[in-house]
Amino acid sequence: MSARARASAAIARSAGRASRLLGRGGGTAVPGRVLLGLDPGAMEALAANLGGGTLLVSATNGKTTTTRLVAGALRADGRHVVTNAAGANLLSGVATALAEAAPRSGSVACGAFEVDEAALPGVARAVRPTAVLLMNLFRDQLDRHGELESIAARWAQMLTDLDPRTRLVVCGDDPLLAALPGDGADVLWFGIADPSAGAPGLAHASDSTTCRRCGSPLLYAHAWIGHVGDWTCAACGLKRPQPDIAVVHAGLEGAAGSRPVIRTPQ
Questions:
Q1: How big is the CA angle at 176 (ends 259 and 192), to the nearest 5 degrees?
Q2: Which of 60, 96, 124, 125 is deepest in the core (most CB within 10 A)?
């Protein structure tokens, strides 16, 4: 790590402490803004210092829970995990997490960051992740992000710009996401393979219902939630990718939770 990046991180941490002492917030964004103002390349340098790699997690729904699960699993494996546990998931929030953790980074450290859908391309450019997890896109927040196609187009460009060695983990049950990786991309697909977890056909109010290749209406054997399900296009033959990681039994138990059975690669 360069001396400039190290010094910028130290100043950013001091700014965060001052912000908290002055009651100007929780210090989850100010350090990141200071860091980027002092050294625009500091995020890449700090992320590169995480010897265990960096994972970015993004979705409309579920990114906070998923990131916490991933971080917990990594800690159980003996890793030191750098993460934005406070939920500050814009560029400044991820920068803050990296700056705060800089003194403890090293060969066994790894990063797991939840990232806002619109902020993902910028964060990916800044940290050059080892892996990217994409889970779903819904129209929940049009006031901030605009149409799904706009976000999807930016994600598609981001995937093109990533280092070819970056591992992609993508929910193939979402037809919008399944169309994003280019041919030959290193993708680990995941999804649900338990028909009892969904409903036959597609709900009337769903977001992405047409084939990304030919524009024809998609057919659904089962829909899990909204447009996410077991889909196929009768016109061109495009269909949901076979999941490498699959929930073969959802084990839904209502308010008591669930006991899923998950199939993973050998």
A1: 20
A2: 96
